Predict the 3D structure of the following.
Amino acid sequence: MDLELLTLRDVIDALMRYDIKHCPFPQNDISKKLGSHNGIIDDEKKIVYLNEEQTQESMRKTIIHEFSHAKNYRAGKKDTEKQIEKETEIIYKKLYGSNN
């Protein structure tokens, strides 16, 4: 499957559809789903949960990661964590370079 990178349009569409919750992890009702992740998207409730205790770099990557899932959910596409991680790294490097 070819990567379709997240665009600004995708981010705006995600922000229109999802609430963003910054909270410490694990959060009671989502801790069982999270494991060691720094973010999770609940497509049913239209909420993106972000671990508020992340570094700035990690938070940026988590937002890219979760919004990439949102893009795929909206398009009706299945994705894998491996695909999303690859996309996240490509986008992060384009936006911030490799040292940030």
